[in-house]
Amino acid sequence: MAEPTQPILFFDSGVGGLSVVTPTARLLPxxxxxxxxxxxxxxxxxxxxxxxxxxxxxxxxxxxxxxxPRLVVIACNTASTIALPVVRAALDVPVVGTVxxxxxxxxxxxxxVIGVLGTEATVRQPYVDDLAARFAADCTVLRHGSxxxxxxxxxxxxxxxxxxxxxxxELAGLFGQPGGGRIDVIVNAxxxxxxLEKRMREVAPHVxxxxxxxxxxxxxxxxxxxxxxxxxxxxxxxxxxxLGERERRIAAGLASQGFGTVEAL
Length: 265
Ligand code: DGL
Description:
Layout: E1 8-12, H1 18-27, E2 33-37, H2 49-67, E3 71-74, H3 77-90, E4 95-96, H4 102-108, E5 113-118, H5 120-123, H6 126-135, E6 140-145, H7 147-157, H8 164-175, E7 185-188, H9 197-203, E8 208-210, H10 213-223, E9 236-240, H11 245-254, E10 259-264
Parallel strand pairs: 1-2, 1-3, 2-9, 3-4, 5-6, 5-7, 7-8, 9-10
Helix pairs in contact: 1-10, 2-3, 8-9
The chain binds D-glutamic acid.
D-glutamic acid (DGL) binds at residues 12-14, 16, 42-45, 76-78, 119, 122, 150, 190-192.
């Protein structure tokens, strides 16, 4: 049985996983949170499958040993679509993964043309073919991998909001494909991208944007039903695999979101 102070550990390459923390904190406002960002390994989206599969389970093993979480959330589509089964097999705590919300998009689409926006590594995964075949068989599913959007999201969190043009250039990677003009729902299949959603909606107001965050938050609630939590919110802890100037700036910006301490793994 979990102790009230036992945290939920969120893991991502960078700040993207905050788009999963936010809906979770809304449902479980007093849950102690450890947010771990693999800043030394960032970005994941341009790495090979072998690199991700070697790095992520080992890091999560160390994090679990140090923080003894009640639950691990891989708040990263790239790591989840590549390494989730290996991580689950290696850890003795429940692990929740993040996978592209293609099912949600297919339920919402009227034109039956869906865009999937993820990292380059995520959009080439067989896992995505499988989701498209299972949940969107009657849809055209167009994909675009963008490393630039990941960088733009990191910059936004560090205090530099993206320009409209920069976002438009990346969305053009979907809209410019044959049939792309008919896309009415875009899956933000990288946890960094919902952090840019406001700007995306300005650029493409005719499109609905969906992501896995709210569904994962509900899953976390289900998995922790009956567990004890603190009576009042406790400050979250930020952990970076490299703690430099950039990470400290991000941490300072997140103080207002309830993160009280920053440490290096
Ligand atoms: N936030 C991650 C994802 O959901 C990866 C971003 C990156 O490091 O490239 O895929």
